[in-house]
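Hi everyone, sorry if this is the wrong subforum. Our group has a chain we'd like a structural model of before ordering constructs, and none of us has done structure prediction before. Sequence below.
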Amino acid sequence: MYTIYVIFKCLPGKREAFVEKVKTEGILDAVRAEDGCIRYDYYYSEADANELLLVEAWESKQHQQIHIEQPHMAALRALKGDFVESTTLKEFKVIE
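Answer:
Right subforum, don't worry. Here is the predicted structure as tokens:
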């Protein structure tokens, strides 16, 4: 399994609107229906009203790489400009 997390620093007051737009545009459902998608969930920060966490889990890194090339991801990147100030992506490291 390949898991990443994305931290979105949203424009002031735009966090909930961003998630709602992702849902109403059908992007969230499209991602969750992709081959290899195990989890794609947003979480609100309690400490920062403008911070949003996205946790993605995929069957493999290749599935995630195919995911980022999908048309609905281009739509997501286009609408981010109205809602998101910055984006940070990190891979989860499993320590055994």
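For your construct planning: The radius of gyration is 13 Å. The mean pLDDT is 94.
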